[in-house]
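HUMAN: You are asked to prepare a plain-text protein record giving the amino acid sequence and the backbone structure tokens, both parts labelled.

ASSISTANT:
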Amino acid sequence: MKKIDIIELILKDRSCDVQIAMAAPIFAPTNIALCKYWGKRDAELNLPMTNSLSISLPDKGASTLLESSEQNEIIVNNQSIALSSSFGKRLIEFLNLFPLRSCLRVTIDVNIPIAAGLASSACGFASLVKALNQFYAWQLSDRELSILARLGSGSACRSLWDGFVEWHQGERADGMDSHGELLKDTWPELNIEVLLVSEKEKSISSRQAMEHTIKTSAAYHQWPQKIDADLRALKQAIHEKDFTLLGETAESNALMMHAMMLTAQPPIQYSTPQTLALMQKIWNLRREGLLLYFTQDAGPNLKILFLEKDKLQVNQSINELSLNQ
């Protein structure tokens, strides 16, 4: 089955003619995986090998505004994006899957670096799908929107909500059971911040790195078992508000993902010397008694996890880390 078939199935009996003027851009948060998505069972439909679990960053993400236009145009952060560019091409290819009968001006504002390992594609495609749903008055469910967002970027299926979201890998070949689901548990005291090492675009995309890891890493066969154990631990930690269990599990999960890439042939290395130095400093701070953990996606930047009660001390430590970089 192709992406266009899934879209036709979801949009059955829904019109692509009615357009509603948007009063404001539609926002979708970026999400940071605590239990990573790394590997696809179906590359065409972005179906994952395993489940995954993320937490959203409510103040970071993408906002999308749609307007009728005489020609397709994409504006990202106030700059017109060439439709032949990587990001522009992905967006246009995605829009072309929909039976839209007019051209659109798509204005997207992203307040995080693009293609730097901070899930910019996730929030971008999630915001676009939510905007399309409003613009054409489709009245789709969150589950349907999550499936559509996944077709644009896998982890986008987790960016429809604030909070903890699990992405179910599903079993069906058509992917209609592979979508995000908001967990009931909340944790207001949990904080997550980005330690920005570089805003540069990654030298190898997550998609390419996933494919290469699956094909060439001898360690990849251990990944599904690791995911199963980590998901159980994370859900327990979230429900019981066990921060140590959450931090240890999320950090271990990220390190395992990067270890698999290092065992690929040839190896893939996203971490820079600065990234590794920050890891060591975080471990030192933890040995000194500060409960501070990190996670890392496909890029050099770290995201740190800590509790609200430690925010002042963590902020001071972050400033020290930044000054010493």
